[in-house]
Every structure is written in structure tokens, then in C-alpha cells.
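Chain A, query sequence.
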Amino acid sequence: MTDEILDRATFDQATFDQAIFDRASAAAVVMARSSGADRAGWLRAVADALDADVADLVAIADRETHLGVARLTGEVARTSGQLRLFASVVDEGSYLEATIDHPVPTATPPRPDLRRMLRPLGPVAVFAASNFPFAFSVAGGDTASALAVGSPVIVKAHPGHPELSRRTAGLVEKALLAAGAPAGAFALVEGYEAGIALVQHPAIAAVAFTGSVTGGRALHDLAAARPAPIPFYGELGSINPVVVTRQADAERGSTLATGLFGSVTLGMGQFCTKPGIVFVPTDSALEAQLGALESSTVDAVLTESMLTESIAAGFTAGAERLLDIPGVRPVLGSVSGPLVVTTPVDTFDAHADELLTEVFGPATVLVRYDTDAQLLAALDRLEGTLTATLHAGDSERVPAVLERLEQIAGRVLFAGWPTGVAVTWAQHHGGPWPSTTSQFTSVGATAVRRFLRPIAYQDAPAAALPPALRDENPLGIPRRVDGILATRD
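Chain A, predicted structure.
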């Protein structure tokens, strides 16, 4: 990586000026005219660059985040894998939603020739996350999905891993330029003021953010207050409730306890999908087994190993807040982490706001219920969440519980645990407020939809039409023609 590449890719507070927006705006024009094959090639080039530099990237990331070589090596593979997934999304072509309605002069009223597809919004601001220094950061899913559809990206680096951000930015910039992407297709900025400037600058057409509810809400309000408001796609807080029925607890409560502890402490509990509240029957085997865990297992996770000092301090404060609630008692652990507390459903009813405030880190709350009515009433108190998990008996059906979980969650699990988000065509990583600010996913193939807008062409001459909308379908992509979905012409 040359200094020239790094200088062009990175802008700090002192050098952040209009030039970066001018480059992105110029690149947007070129990228909007680029072919899907070109953009797929750009993404694969970035993926190859990350894989080729994995050892050095992981070493830097481990110094800055304490997440461990194994976890970080896997995260690089996930990041390059999702870049390649978006390349395949572009190759396949259905993301364009190409739709053709041929004219029908005899209709009442007469129907013109109408052809519709999705086009890129323009330059996108991406705010990197703290807890995924690769997959939700400089070259993560937001960057990949925006580049895939032809939107330039300006990333706001997270202060928790600055050296890694700069190193990754240099690799991305170098790979894109070598693969033929225009200058300005990608850049990195750093600093609080740079983030504010990104959201407010008229060249920016959309914002993608992963972080806290407080920070996300502030940026969302900035985006909405602009003279020309823009979409803000925030992935914010999530409590990720788990329901364990009485039958499930009787059948496998001890096993569920081990799985829950592993999910709560995975990555020091710094996953947006960590189970934050678990509804269990009174006198559950799950709670008893958690309390019996060996101290050596509990001590494996400590706040000293968390991402940043501020996150560790926030965890300790949140853990102390939970333990100060009357009726809440510890099952295992302490304020230095991990921590599992338990409380009866009556205490939950009296202190729901406090118990449902996310504690970012290895902590969870067990809420004990006695009757199905108590469980359903408690579920009615929950806000929007990324995930909800149901552990029922092998032959058990609980439609009323499932109905409530479907209303609040973007992904409902029927076994296993919510930590770990597969990057696939069918994935949905989102949910009602406050988990996200939109109904789009930030993970998986349809994440590209955030950075596209529809445009319809009426009675356009063939020469003026984009290739995706021409009758001969030169791209060979799936389209809907006169109401009939055709996978290929």
C-alpha cells in the first residue's frame, strides 16, 4: 500500500473539505453508468485484497479490539464473503426490479408504455461499528451493498480501531482503482465533526449507521432536518428476547442454560443480537443450571477484554443499575462481567423500562413467569427488536406467543440462539424501532435496496432505455413483463 493511496483514501478532521464530496459526486455519475459486471469485479477485487492481507489485518484488529485472532480471522472471511455475495447479487440482476408494461391503446384509459427499475441514489455516508471491525466497518456490508449498486461510499471510521480503519481503507481504495472503479468511489474520514459534516452535506444521498440508539437518533434527526431530507438507515439497540416455555424447560432446560450462557458471553456480549432478556418458568431448570456454572467458566469473560474503556464503563454502570432494582438478584457473575440476574414477573411489570434498557456487554435478565397470561402480558411490554427466540417443547404449539414475537422482531428463531447472522439472500437483519429506523435489512442480499430509488420511463424510445428495460433483455436478468415474472428471456 503506497502513501499516495492512503493519502487519497483518508481524510481527518484537519483536512476534511469540499474536495472529498466533489470526488464522490463525480464518481457517482460514472458509477451510475457502469455495468453490473464492472461493479461485481470491483467487489471481488476488494474481497481478494482483504483475504491476501488477512494476517496483518487481524494482528492490527486484535491489538485495538481484544476480540482474538480466531474470531477476527473468521470475521475477515465473513467480510470478503459478503463482498462476493453482493457481486453475485449484481450478476443475477433481480435487485433492479426491472418491470415492463407494454402499451394497451384500447384500455380505459389508454395505457402507455411504462418501464420501471431501480437506480442508485448517489454518494452514501457509512458509519462504521465498534463491535465488528471488519464486517460492519470500513469494508463491511453497508459499503459493499452501496458499491454494488453504483453508489460511492464515504466511511466515517470508528475511533475504537483507527489504525485498522486506515489500513483497510488503503486496501479498498487500491483494489477499487486497480479494478477500474473511478477515483472518489470510496473514501474514509475520521472524527466527530467529520461525521456531522457527512450527514449534513448536500452531496450525501443516504446514511447507514450501526451504533447506539442515542447516537443514531441524533444523526437521524440531522438527516431529517436538512433542507432536503435524506434516508437514514440506522441499526440501533436491541434487547433480543427469548421465551422458554415450561415444556421446553422440562425437556432440555440444562442444555438451554449452556447455550444461553454461550450466546450472552460470545464476543464479550458485544453483539447487537445478544439475548438481553429471557422469559423462563418459575423454578426453571435453566436458571438452576446457570447458577451452578463453574467459576472458571464465568471468569472467562472480563470487562478488561471489552472493545473500549467507555464500553467497559458503560457495561459496569448498566450492571450496577440492574442490581439496584428492588426484586432483582444475581444468578451468577458480577458487575465486571458476565452477569445473569433474575426477577419475578411482578418486578418486571413494575420496572419494565429499566429492565428493558439494553446493557451492552455480557449481561442478561431472566424474568420468571407462573402463567401463560403473565408471559403474554410481559411480551406486550416489549419494543421493536432485531431478533426474538422461541424455545418450545418438541410437540408444543404456542401461537399466541409466536404472534407477539412476530409483531416486534425482524427475525424469529425457533431453536438455537440469535448471536450469529448468516449473510444470505433470505436474511433479514432489522426490525421495528428502536432496533432499526427502517424496514430494510442491513445484512444479506436485499440490503442493496436501501441505496436505490425507483424510476419509471414512459413511452421512451428504445435507444434511451437502460439495457435492463430493453425488450431484447441484453443483460439476461429476471424481469416482470406485462405482469408475468420471467426468470430469464
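The chain has two domains: 3-236+438-484, 241-413. Residues 69-92 form the longest helix (24 residues).
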